[in-house]
Specification:
The chain is an alpha+beta fold. 41% of the residues lie in helices and 21% in strands. The protein has three domains: 171 residues, Alpha-Beta Plaits (2-Layer Sandwich), CATH 3.30.70.270; 53 residues, DNA polymerase, domain 1, CATH 1.10.150.20; 162 residues, DNA polymerase, Y-family, little finger domain (Dna Ligase, domain 1, 2-Layer Sandwich). The two termini are 25 Å apart.
């Protein structure tokens, strides 16, 4: 049986690296990309940081106030998604030169199945060397790559090879490679699962591999089977391409908790616009809308609605998101974060009805025209009247751009 060859590619400190590339004065300095630290009183998080900043303990998803305390002399920069998206597009164009079987995980990370294409460069290792070289030559950025016969091991290998590394794990060495690693390295083992495994005396992947399946199933149910398989180097997951994307979302964290429904409404309009545009970019329509809200005390709730027909129209998404918010809102509530997600996809060109009304056709044309204008002149070339009053949110409403199932 022919073994698969998976490559996991992860750009090194991507946002910070792009900033350092575009501004050589930042090279060698600790750079933190994320929310405004406000002299240690900022409320957002770190999106990413340079390796120089990591030496001080700064890491992604850390509260920006903590990052400031750890490294107050760092250069703190706002997220510039337009710039990073352009760099990402350039990198993915390179990847598609090597294989069509690509699963983007984020703007700076992807899985590739090179089983059917590595022969053009002799070996999988030579293929990945060429990928790294081409990325450096064209974008002046470094990538770390892991090679393995299963996706899980490829991701671990890329993590272990950072920064600017390349590590190949061959099938015959897979269990030997995994065995001594901490169980937290396994894909899907979070802090709670790690703690539960540690209580059982399971600290390494080899410990997990030696534990009976019966004991694991008794302790973790069906997840015990999954953990046992991973420890044995068994991971049947294949590449999930763009056409199999699971959800598209955007969210926004307010600088200060807000109790203003109007302020939330304006942000929801912008988030809905961004989700709508992202859906059309991937030729997708979604049927299920989910509103995410996080209150002052970090209590997080979601409300979902399933449309009768799939859509990628910004008006439709916004109106329902606002309606869900009104149903959730109670006087005195203070909001820290709101988010909009669309899921339950199908191809944008698949009709669910034989009868397409004139209004739908008109909306399709309007959205296509708006997309063309924004593609040519930028995101702010044409905006909703509702979003004009709070233009600052348009540049701050980042978050997860798209998510897929594991």
């Amino acid at each position: 049986m022919l073994l698969k060859v998976f490559a996991h590619i992860d750009m090194d400190a991507f946002f910070a690296a792009v900033e350092q590339r575009d501004n050589p004065r930042l090279c060698g300095k600790p750079v933190v990309v994320g929310a405004d630290p406000q002299n240690g009183r900022g409320r957002g998080v770190v999106s990413t940081c340079s390796y120089e900043a990591r030496k001080f303990g700064v890491h992604s998803a850390m509260p920006i106030s903590t990052a400031y305390r750890l490294c107050p002399h760092a250069v703190f920069l706002p997220v510039d998604m337009k710039k990073y998206s352009q760099a990402s597009d350039e990198i993915f164009k390179i990847l598609y030169d090597f294989t069509p079987d690509i699963e983007p995980i984020s703007v700076d990370e992807a899985f590739l199945d090179i089983t059917g294409s590595y022969h053009f460069y002799g070996t999988p290792l030579n293929t990945c060397r060429e990928i790294k070289k081409r990325i450096m030559d064209r974008s002046h950025l470094t990538a770390s790559i892991g090679l393995a016969p299963v996706k899980m091991a490829a991701k671990i290998a890329s993590d272990l090879s950072k920064p600017d590394g390349l590590l190949e794990v061959k099938g015959e060495n897979l269990k030997e490679f995994l065995g001594p690693l901490d169980i937290a390295k396994l894909w899907g083992v979070g802090p709670k699962t790690k703690k539960a495994l540690n209580i059982l005396g399971i600290k390494t992947i080899d410990d997990l591999a030696r534990t009976s399946l019966k004991d694991l199933r008794r302790q973790f149910g069906e997840h015990g089977q999954h953990l046992h398989d991973l420890a044995q180097g068994i991971d049947p997951r294949e590449i999930v391409t763009d056409s199999e994307m699971k959800s598209v979302s955007h969210e926004h964290t307010f600088d200060t908790d807000t109790g203003s429904p109007d302020e939330v409404r304006e942000v929801l309009a912008i988030l809905s616009e961004k989700v709508s545009r992202r859906l059309r970019r991937y030729s997708l329509k979604g049927k299920t809308l989910t509103l995410k809200v996080r209150l002052k005390g970090f209590e997080t709730s979601t409300k979902a609605f399933t449309f009768g027909e799939r859509t990628n129209f910004s008006d439709t998404i916004y109106k329902k998101a606002h309606e869900l918010f009104r149903e959730f809102h109670k006087p005195g509530m203070k909001f820290r974060l709101v988010g909009v997600r669309m899921s339950h996809f199908d191809d944008a060109y698949v009709r669910e009805s034989l009868f397409e009304d004139e209004m739908t056709k008109k909306n399709e044309k309007v959205h296509a025209a708006v997309d063309r204008i924004k593609d040519k002149f930028g995101e702010t070339a044409i905006v909703r009247g509702l979003s004009l009053r709070n233009e600052k949110y348009r540049h701050q409403s980042g978050g997860v751009e798209y998510q897929r199932s594991a």
